[in-house]
Amino acid sequence: MSASARQWLDHIHALNLPEKIRIMNVCGGHERSITMAGLRGALPKNIELIPGPGCPVCVCPEEDIYEAIQIALNEDVILTAFGDMLRVPVNVAKKEIRSLEQAKANGADIRPVATPMEPVQIARDNPDTAVVFFATGFETTTAPVAAMLAEGVPDNLYVLLSGRLTWPAVAMLLESEEAGFQALVAPGHVATVMGGNEWKFVIDQHQMPAAIAGFTPESLLAAMYSTLRQTIENKPFLDNCYPELVQDEGNQTAQKHINETLDVVDANWRGVGIIPASGFALNDSYRQHDAREKFPGYADMARRRAGQMPPGCDCARVVMGKIYPNECRLYGKACTPRSPVGPCMVSDEGACRIWWAGGVRESAA
Asked: Structural domain of residue 280, as residue ranges?
C-alpha cells in the first residue's frame, strides 16, 4: 500500500535536511495541487518550492495572440481557441482590441473549445466557412492536435499552432549561470506522453536530483522526498513517482502522430525570447491546413521581441522561477483575476492566478 500524504510529510520532516533547498515544480497543475493542498505550509521551512515554466497560456507569444485577434477581426472565419486564451491581453493602445474576448465582443465569431474534436465538428457543421483553431499548449495538448490532423480533418479547418515543448525551457534554466534551484519535480502528464526518459538529461548533464510526479499530494510529496534523499546522499537519479501512467518510452502512438504531422522548430516564449528547438509547426504534408499559409498577412514580426509583457508585469520572471508570484510589482494592485494585466493572472495554470485562489492577496513587492 502506498504511503499517505501525512506519512510522506513525516518522512520528509525526519530527514537531516540541508539549511536551504529549492525545488522547482515545472508544471502549472503541480503548482495548483501544491497550493490548494497547503503543502508549502506543511513542509519544513528550509524547503522552498519554486513554480516553473509549465503554464502554456503564460508563455504563448504575444505575436501569436495578436495574429489570432487580427484573423478573427478581418477575415470571414470562425476562430476557436481554448478558453483560457480568450482573456490573455496583448500590448496595444488602450482604445485598441487587446484580447480575443474583446474581439468577440466587437463582433468576431470566436468560440471557446475544450478539445481538438470541437473545432473539427464546427468545421463540419459550417462547410462554407473557414474555421481556424488557435491551438496552444505543451505536449499533452499538442499530441491530440497532431492526432486530429493525422486522422484527417475537413478541408475548411486551419490550425494556428502555438505548441511548445516543456523540457527545453528547463534545460535553458539549467544551462544558465544560476539555475536558482537544486532539485526538480518533472511534469507527470508530459512524461506520460513523451516518456520519463525525456527528463534524464537533468541527471546525465546536470547531476541534479529529479523525480516525476502526478497531481495528488501523495505523488508530489513522494517526489519531493525522493529528491531530498538524493540531495542528502549525493546520488542523483530520475525517480518515477507516477508509475500508474508514466513509462520510460511514453505513449508511442501519440509520439507517432506528432512525428508524422509536426516539425520541431525554434520558438519564442513570451517575455523570455527564442528557445532553440522548443516549439512545434505543421510540417509540409499538412501545410494546406496551416492558418499562417491560408491567412499570411497578419503575422507582425515587429512584435516578436523578448520584452513582450505589459509594462510593470513580471510574469516572465515568475514563469522562469526567478521570483514568487506575489513579488511581481503589479500583483494584487493593478493585476487581479478580475482585471488581469499579465497572462500569469489569467490562466488556471498561471502561478499568480493559483496563488490568488489560494488566498495570497497582497503583493510582497
From this structure: 61-163+251-296
Sign of CA dihedral 21, 224, 249, 57: negative
Q: How far, in Å, CA of 199 to CA of 167, rounded?
A: 7
Task: Say how far apart CA 126 and CA 193 lie, in whole Å.
Answer: 32
Q: Which residues are CB-neighbours of 68 under 8 A, at least 6 positions away?
A: 79, 81, 85, 100, 132, 134, 160
Going from the C-alpha of 203 to that of each of 65, 71, 169, 210, 222, the distances in angstroms are 36, 44, 16, 7, 18
Question: Are residues 149 and 70 part of one domain?
Answer: yes
Q: Is residue 194 part of a domain?
A: no
Q: Give the count of domains, the chain.
A: 2
Enter the C-alpha cell of residue 260: 508524422
Bridge partners of 58, per DSSP, are none
Cell 521551512 sits on residue: 45
pTM of the entire structure?
0.94
Integer Cα distance of 364 and 154 in angstroms: 51
In whole angstroms, give the CA distance from residue 110 to residue 119: 11
Instruction: Tell me the per-residue pLDDT of 314-326, one tens digit each, with 9 for 90 and over.
Output: 999 999 999 999 9
Convert the pLDDT of each residue in 32-79 to its tens digit. 999 999 999 999 999 999 999 999 999 999 999 999 999 999 999 999
Residues 81, 151, single domain; the answer is: yes
Task: Please report whether residue 186 resides in a domain.
Answer: no
Is 34 within a domain? no
Specify if 91 maps to a domain.
yes
